[in-house]
Design brief:
about 300 residues; alpha/beta; seven-stranded mixed β-sheet; five-stranded mixed β-sheet; about 35% helix; about 20% strand; globular
Length: about 300
């Protein structure tokens, strides 16, 4: 009888261990682009230990190791179940995610983090400014998009975020990911770099934060009576991305790096990975610099 009980207990434990922790999603965020951003995308292997596990219009990057995984960005609140499912489809387990990072604290990149943390019990780490926004569940008052208001901006708050330093390298097992503070789009914007190898071939990987000079109505990047100019800070962030060792570039919005077009070319020629492009970060920075210059000219003309 004792052997039967022991066998039943063992089978029950195995069945429980095989199932991922239940993910309970938060209420979906409603916006004009949310449905398109959150459309399903099959997860795919990027390079080395790196996988894309996000929806169609939002980046979510999984970096894997036998000791645990790192996830960058959690999409919308309604993206969390899709990201969790994509992690499983890629052959990994959500509960093995030990560290969750963020590019910037807007609802379309931070909205799903709270649910993913509850299901994985992962630690969240962010820049000090991003920590404030993550824990309050919305942009801080110095965010260029703060003026859109709480209903538009807010997302489920994230508890116990660990603040990190610019240039700090975070480790999970043999994985090493380095933070590069790139404020401008948000006060705490952060880009991430790591090294990936396939055999003797190694690449410098970059997940560059959004560098778009977009704001709520009335905000001036050139400054006004309420705040100093942000232009110099934004230009410095662009320069950071431009100078990074960069063989393969990913971004919070896949459209910023023409991901769909590259995947179409990859399907046509599987032997050539079109994501590998040592000029990508410089091109990304050049585009951001042009957009910022246009915004500055617009503000000065209006003044």
């Amino acid at each position: 009888m004792s052997k039967i009980i022991l066998l039943a207990a063992t089978l029950l434990f195995a069945a429980t261990a095989a199932n991922p922790r239940e993910l309970v999603a938060d209420a979906p965020h409603v916006c004009d682009d949310c449905a398109a951003w959150n459309a399903a995308r099959t997860p795919f292997h990027v390079y080395g230990n790196t996988w894309f596990v996000g929806p169609a219009g939002l980046g979510s990057i999984l970096i894997t190791s036998p000791q645990g995984h790192i996830l960058i960005d959690g999409g919308l609140p309604q993206s969390a179940p899709l990201i969790a499912a994509n992690i499983e489809k890629a052959g990994f387990r959500l509960e093995d995610v030990k560290l969750i990072l963020n590019s910037h604290t807007h609802y379309d990149h931070a909205g799903g983090i709270a649910a993913l943390v509850r299901a994985s019990h992962a630690q969240v780490a962010a820049s000090p400014e991003s920590r404030k926004a993550l824990e309050r569940g919305g942009p801080t008052a110095d965010d260029p998009q703060f003026g859109f208001g709480a209903e538009h901006n807010n997302f489920p708050p994230v508890k116990a975020v660990r603040a990190i330093a610019d240039g700090e390298t975070l480790h999970i097992g043999k994985l090493s990911v380095t933070a590069h503070f790139t404020p401008g789009h948000t006060p705490g914007g952060t880009s991430w770099t790591w090294r990936e190898c396939e055999g003797a071939s190694c690449l410098d990987m970059v997940y560059a934060d959004s560098l778009n000079s977009i704001s709520a109505p009335g905000f001036r990047f050139t400054g006004d009576a309420t705040h100093a100019s942000r232009v110099g800070q934004f230009e410095q962030s662009i320069a950071v991305i431009e100078k990074l060792p960069c063989d393969l570039l990913l971004a919070p919005h896949p459209s910023l790096v023409d991901l769909d077009a590259k995947l179409a070319r990859w399907k046509e020629m599987p032997a050539v990975n079109p994501l590998i492009d040592s000029s990508a970060c410089k091109a990304y920075a050049a585009g951001a610099r042009e957009r910022l210059a246009a915004r500055v000219a617009e503000e000065r003309a209006a003044k």
